[in-house]
Automatic annotation (TrEMBL):
ABC transporter domain span: 6-221
Keywords: ATP-binding, Cell membrane, Ion transport, Membrane, Nucleotide-binding, Translocase, Transport, Zinc, Zinc transport
Pfam families to which the protein is assigned, alphabetical: ABC_tran (PF00005)
GO terms (BP aspect): response to zinc ion; zinc ion transport
Origin species: Psychromarinibacter sediminicola
Protein name in UniProt: Metal ABC transporter ATP-binding protein
Length: 251
């Protein structure tokens, strides 16, 4: 048994006096696909920032495997649309990459032949594939995606995540993603972690889908569409995400 790629113990993160995450334990192993779900403001991006090293830890620790290579795909990236820049050139920033390496990354991201296109001329789906290709240049052990398919329509999002599964199969990298697309989450993940300031529940998609906490958060998905329910527990937390254990459909 090898050590996890990332192991988080007792993590608490505060922004000023507000607690974003409290006492979070989390680990991801080599080759796993793990999805983080949770309502807006539940600390999903904060957990990712803690792994990327972009946030101070009030308590706990984040341990990474020595030499861990991380590829990161953001939700979006603002580029000046008036700036002429080909995909090839974009992939070579900030470090030059060999043409064969860039080609392989574009192939893996499912957009072969787009190298000479202008970045400003890409569709939303193609743009996200280019961000994926850029992350793959790192030959990551761990690919992190923070709502990377958020702007895509349902077929576009499904195709994007199918490609992520292919990338995992081809390269053996682990994948940690935040997604609101529960259909995708349930079909593509080995493990799901449900956050709401703390870890509400975690496990295989089948098991998590049956837990009262998960059902209280998301209800039943219909045709891949998320039916979001307000989350209520009957206890209080220092992180301020108050919730009682009963279901109440969101408007
Ligand atoms: N830089 C910051 N300064 C202050 N508060 C922040 C900052 N970043 C996040 N927060 C707060 O921390 C909490 C968790 O935010 P986070 O972005 O991690 O949630 P999230 O689950 O990713 O949300 P969403 O689904 O809306 O993207 C929220 O209450 C948010 O307002």
């Amino acid at each position: 048994m090898t050590d996890p790629l990332v192991e988080i113990q007792g993590l608490t993160v505060r922004y000023g006096s507000a607690v974003a995450l409290e006492s979070v334990d989390f680990a991801i192993d080599r080759g796993e696909i793990v999805t983080i779900v949770g309502p807006n403001g539940s600390g999903k991006s904060t957990l990712i920032r803690a792994i990327l090293g972009g946030v101070g830890l009030a308590k706990g620790r984040v341990r990474k495997a020595p030499g861990l290579r991380i590829g990161y795909v953001p939700q979006r990236l603002a580029l000046d649309p008036t700036l002429p820049m080909t995909v090839r050139r974009f992939l070579g920033l900030p470090r030059r990459v060999a043409p064969a390496t860039a080609r392989q990354a574009l192939d893996r991201a499912g957009v072969p032949g787009l190298g000479e296109r202008q970045m400003a001329a890409l569709s939303g789906g193609q743009f996200q594939r280019i961000l994926l290709a850029r992350a793959l240049l790192e030959e990551p052990d761990l690919l992190i995606l923070d709502e990377a398919a958020a702007g895509l329509d349902q077929p576009g999002s499904a195709a994007f995540y199918a490609r992520i599964e292919d990338v995992r199969a081809e390269t053996g990298c682990a994948v940690l993603m935040v997604s609101h697309d529960l259909h995708v989450v349930m079909s593509a993940s080995d493990r799901v972690v449900c956050l709401n300031g703390h870890v509400c529940c975690a496990g295989t998609p089948d098991v998590v889908a049956e837990t009262p906490d998960y059902r209280a958060l998301f209800g039943e998905g219909t045709h891949g569409t998320m039916a979001l329910y307000r989350h209520h527990h009957d206890h209080r937390h220092a992180h301020g995400n108050e919730h009682l254990h009963h279901e109440e459909p969101a408007e």
